Amino acid sequence: MEKTAKTLQDASSEGSTSSLVVDETEQILERAVIRLNASILGIVLGILTGLGIFIATNFLILKGGAVVGPHLSLLGAFFPYYTVTFGGSILGFIYGFVCGFVAGFIIASIYNQVVKLKSG
User: At what angle are helices 38-63 and 86-119 packed, to 10 degrees?
Assistant: First the structure.
């Protein structure tokens, strides 16, 4: 980056070549910044989804009542062996992490492909 900064300073005194250098710098920034890291986005969404299920399940367990979490227990239809218990919250975290990771990875991959098509 130091070389680019020096080039920009040198080019600003020349006039017409400054626009070429700025365009090149913008292209470098687009390639570096606009792309998403699919693994990192997957991990972040996985942790958020897993924690959401874990916290919601444990909140309902601590709240108690005659029937604990009838709506949340419907996740058992999608996540085998999931129940509204502490063990189920751990299993729900794992399922949530996997689903969130896959969703984040797919979102970032599609986004990167769109950016690649746009930048030509």
Answer: 150
Q: Domain check: are 55 and 104 in the same one?
A: yes
Looking at the structure of the chain, the number of domains it has is 2
Range of the domain at 71: 36-119
Residues 54 and 17 in one domain: no
DSSP per residue, 1-18: -HHHHHHHHHHHHHSTHH
pLDDT digits (tens, 9 = 90+) for 24-51: 887 777 766 678 899 999 999 999 999 9
- Say yes or no: 54 and 106 in one domain: yes
The string of DSSP codes covering 67-97 is S--TTGGGGGGTSTT--SSHHHHHHHHHHHH
pLDDT, tens only, 65-107 = 888 889 999 999 999 999 999 999 999 999 999 999 999 999 9
Check whether residue 76 and residue 107 sit in a common domain.
yes
Asked whether the beta carbons of 100 and 39 are under 8 A apart, the reply is: no
**What is the C-alpha to C-alpha distance for residues 67 and 76, in angstroms, rounded to an integer?**
16
